[in-house]
Amino acid sequence: MSEGALPRAIDDFTAGAEHLTQVVDLIDDDMWDGPGLGEWSLRSLVGHASRSLTTVVSYLAEPSSDVELHSTAEYFASIRGYGDPAEVRRRGVDAGLALGDDPRTGVRERRAQAVEVLAGADDRPLTTPFGGIMLSDYLPTRTFELAVHGLDISRAIGADLPLPASVLASALSTAVATAALTGQGEQVLLTLTGRESAPVSVV
Questions:
Q1: Domain around 183
Q2: Model pTM?
Q3: In a domain, 197, yes or no
């Protein structure tokens, strides 16, 4: 990574985390058990999104590992098709329940913990279930998740809270790089330029 990559990645992640807390603050008390995304309730969707905060904290607490994934796109390419969708859904449900009786406060606390551990952090390899990756390459994966699920939550509650420009730019860059790495670059280009409207899944 280039010099300054980690500070930029931290800034983008922090902005994405703040956007998530702002969206969650807009959720009415009677909406938590309502529809979120697919089979997830809104609480479960928020719980899943909050894992982008908690994994930063837990991975930074682990010993460093060898670097096996050399970019953000490589990380996402490595997880395509990995794992049981039912298990992913279960983790979202569990994470939603773990937010407690006051999910808004739960998300704010998780955001504060993630921002705190990143303060003054050095770029180093992190151990993830998919291989070792530098912190500066891992954080954009979390910014991407925060951006996408922030939009999911906004749509579920009918809110219109735009993503910060830097967060949107980071997420788009990640999506394009991953598409190119996984053989979907041309399809994404055709879709973005209006030539085709076929759905593309990069992660």
A1: 5-192
A2: 0.93
A3: no
